[in-house]
Amino acid sequence: MENKNKDLIDYLLILGDNSLILGHRLSELCGHGPSLETDIALTNISLDLFGQVRSYFQYAAELTGGEASEDTVAMKRVDREYRHTWLVEQSNKDFAYVIGRQFLFDAFHLPLLEQLVNSKDEMIAAVAAKSIKESRYHLRFSSSWMERLGDGTQESHQRMQTAINDLYPFTYELFEETETEKLMFEAGIGADLKAIEATYRQTVKEVFAKANLEIPTAPARKTDGKKGIHSEQLGFILAELQFMQRAYPNMTW
Amino acid sequence: MKGNPIWEVFIRSKNGLEHRHVGSLHAEDAKMAMENARDVYTRRQEGVSIWVVESKHITASNPSENGEMFDPAKDKAYRHPTFYDLPDELEHI
């Protein structure tokens, strides 16, 4: 039986899963940050992202009905049901990768939220309104570090450029409009990816210039994360993310 | 991190009048020090204003000199404004 809200639910997953998986990647750094200050900063970002995820997924669970809850939505789907992009799956290879991944996401996330604030769906607009301040700070933090690492020592510059060269090809997927996103945009609920892309490329240009980094020209990685096709990284991520819920169903603290 | 100076952090709470010293942290420069202070010291709504000062700019009194610095003020009651008769109408002095 098809839920009449299936497109809206799918859109909520597209919105929430990026924050969920990125939040999870950042949580892996807890206790392992390069310094006390960055450890706390990165896990703070993770908590902010999880806060957003909870709002999106509580709404999705409500629309799904039955036994669905924010926890089942977050932790009981199989890999092909997740709708995040490959960018946020990338591992915490070194601090440059962590910062690169964060910046390339934040530069997209902020304009996305700025659009969603005007969504015809009141719930989405409310989540976006609350999340904008958080996202603004995330972008400030990640841009600062991009500049420091890019325009730092020879080693930091090299590592930052290497990380960017690896990560940049994953950014194109952020702007590839899926069927769900097209429907949502036409209904006045979803964001205009084309408009966001313009802002994105501009932000990237400005920050890269200050960071003395080259914008990679390598072709886009053609990935279908938003359609549920993910890299081998997701298996490991879900093994950690879902373990407790699957080993001890309905566990509570 | 090499050459990573220490900064002292002062925070003024929402209802406070003065910035209070809450701790210290490492940062390369003032902008980073401000962001680190926000991340480390304002997680639980501790305040609405942050000052960061590089530790080297703070001059502190030497505890071993406490005797000559602070003891002489102990027995000088005439320095306290306790001998004035305040009219009843004055409530908040």
Give structural notes:
The complex is a heterodimer of chains A (253) and B (93). Helix content of chain A is 66%, strand content 0%. By secondary structure, chain A is mainly α. In chain A, α5 runs antiparallel to α6 (122-150). The longest helix of chain A is centred in the first third of the chain and has 29 residues, at 36-64. Chain B has 93 residues and is α+β, with helices and mostly antiparallel strands. Chain B has a domain at 1-59: Ubiquitin-like (UB roll) (Roll), CATH 3.10.20. In chain B, 18% of the residues lie in helices and 22% in strands. A three-stranded antiparallel sheet of chain B has the order 2-1-3, with helices on one face. The A-B interface holds A 34-37, 40-41, 44, 137, 140-141, 144, 148 and B 1, 4, 25-28, 31-32, 35-36, 38-40, 43.
Order of helices and strands of chain B: EEHEH
Report how far apart the termini of chain A are. Answer: 34 Å
Counted by DSSP, the helix tally of chain A is 10
Question: Beta-sheet strand percentage of chain B?
Answer: 15-25%
Average residue-wise pLDDT of chain A:
95
Instruction: Report low-confidence residues of chain A grouped into runs of 5 or more.
Output: none
Structural class of chain A: mainly alpha
Any idea what the CATH architecture of chain A is?
A: Up-down Bundle
How is the biggest beta sheet of chain B arranged? 3 strands, antiparallel
**Helix count, DSSP H or I runs of 4 or more residues of chain B:** 2
Spans where pLDDT lies below 50 across 5 or more residues of chain B: none
Task: Kindly identify the CATH topology of chain A.
Answer: Ferritin
> What is the CATH superfamily of the domain at 1-59 in chain B?
Phenylacetic acid degradation B
The end-to-end distance of chain B, rounded to whole angstroms, is: 51 Å
* Neighbour order of strands in the largest sheet of chain B: 2-1-3
What's the level 1 CATH class of chain A? Mainly Alpha
